[in-house]
């Protein structure tokens, strides 16, 4: 099988993370969602909570005063290295390093842009109708409808701001991806089958593992 890199962007509550994990299983890929934050922390020497605070959120320094500044692993801290942009660079380096090691599925974090020069990549965006998204967010957070809608608005504002700022593209816009699909149309499993078939054709694969 050829080297496969799958990047999955997703609306909140669309089932995108579940679809990404199923694609990872289908194509024998290492799955990276929040795992990439731990990898970036290890490779950079920064505390993981800094990456968590800035994760897909342009506006990290608004919360900076509330957390203790870490030190580089050798005991020295260099303020000029510490910024939202440097954290994004460390995370991008971790994504490139992981992709160089084998088949991967990345969820979010502008991985499609970071790996834009890697020809094997397939960039996907998952949407769903609002009712299904609200229902999933309600189940996940055990909250009422209004709270779920607020979570969706705020989180997607952060994701779009992060993606648009670092990539110069538009989050969720069809021109930014190879394929966009509404998981409400087919359901999760059939959406996985549809995307898997697209990936095989895109990468010239004739068989699955």
Distance between the ends? 8 Å
For the report, how would you describe the main beta sheet?
5 strands, parallel
Radius of gyration: 18 Å
Instruction: Provide the succession of SSEs.
Output: EHEHHHEHEHHEHH
Unreliable segments (pLDDT under 50, ≥5 consecutive)? 60-81
What general form does the structure show? globular
Kindly estimate the percentage of residues that lie in beta strands according to DSSP: 5-15%
How helical, in percent, are the residues?
40-55%
Placed side by side, the strands forming the largest sheet appear as 2-3-1-4-5
Question: If you average the pLDDT, what whole number results?
Answer: 83
| Individual helix count | 9
Number of strand elements: 5
SS class = alpha/beta
Produce the secondary structure layout.
Blueprint: E1 5-10, H1 16-26, E2 30-32, H2 35-44, H3 48-54, H4 84-101, E3 104-107, H5 111-114, E4 121-127, H6 130-141, H7 145-167, E5 179-182, H8 183-186, H9 188-202
Q: Describe it for me?
A:
- There is one protein chain.
- By secondary structure, the chain is α/β, with parallel strands linked by helices.
- The protein has nine helices and five strands, in the order βαβαααβαβααβαα.
- It has helices at residues 16-26, 35-44, 48-54, 84-101, 111-114, 130-141, 145-167, 183-186, 188-202, and strands at residues 5-10, 30-32, 104-107, 121-127, 179-182.
- α1 packs across α9 (188-202), α2 (35-44) crosses α3 (48-54) and α2 (35-44) crosses α4.
- The model is unreliable at 60-81 (pLDDT under 50).
């Amino acid at each position: 099988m050829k080297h496969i890199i799958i990047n999955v962007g997703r609306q909140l509550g669309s089932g995108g993370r579940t679809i990404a994990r199923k694609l990872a299983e289908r194509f024998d890929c290492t799955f990276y969602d929040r795992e990439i934050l731990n990898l970036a922390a290890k490779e950079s020497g920064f505390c993981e909570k800094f990456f968590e605070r800035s994760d897909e959120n342009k506006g990290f320094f608004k919360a900076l005063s509330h957390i203790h500044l870490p030190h580089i692993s050798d005991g020295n801290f260099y303020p000029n290295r510490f910024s939202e942009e440097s954290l994004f660079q460390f995370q991008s380096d971790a994504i490139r390093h992981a992709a160089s090691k084998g088949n991967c599925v990345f969820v979010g974090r502008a991985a499609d842009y970071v790996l834009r020069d890697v020809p094997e990549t397939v960039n996907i965006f998952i949407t769903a109708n609002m009712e299904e998204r609200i229902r999933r967010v309600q189940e996940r957070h055990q909250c009422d409808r209004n709270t779920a809608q607020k979570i969706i608005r705020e989180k997607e504002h952060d994701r779009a701001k992060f993606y648009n700022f670092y990539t110069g593209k538009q989050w969720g816009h069809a021109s930014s991806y190879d394929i966009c699909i509404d998981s409400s149309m087919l359901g999760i499993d059939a959406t996985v089958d549809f995307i898997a078939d697209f990936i095989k054709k895109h990468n010239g694969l004739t068989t699955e593992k």
